[in-house]
Fold this sequence. Notes:
Largest sheet: 4 strands, antiparallel
Number of domains: 1
Strand content: 35-45%
Number of strands: 10
Strand order of the largest sheet: 4-5-6-7
Order of helices and strands: HEEEEEEEHEEEH
Distance between the termini: 16 Å
Shape: globular
Radius of gyration: 15 Å
Structural class: alpha+beta
Number of helices: 3
Helix content: 10-25%
Amino acid sequence: MKKYSLSLFVLLTVLSCSSSEQGYLKVTKVYVNEMQNTIYFDTDKSRMNVLDQDENSVFQIVETTEDNQWVIVIEMSAEAHEGRVETIYNLYNTFIGDQIDHSLLEGHTLLGFENTDTDIILITESDRTYSLNNLYELTDK
Length: 141
């Protein structure tokens, strides 16, 4: 239900944008709460929109694109463990208000973004790159 409500909110906000914004939601900020178990994003029209929330996880933002449309987030268990803790790298798109399916990223560790003249490229630890324009087209918008 959360994802449907958020997707409906994002769709309604996008539809309400003026034509000067070319129909895109202007995301002004992406951040986590103090407990680090909720990822929020602010737009020019609303604040504290939930992008993801999990009381059993801790989220840390690695990097965002300049327009805050794409966000790399590390997700870890909130429970204290001795030794290594599993770290999951997630990619979110604030325009669709959801996480990108891991299968599209083939399990690669996400490092950052690189701008080109026509696209933004997602860089991974294994030097595999992904066009964010192509990834966006593969999502269930």
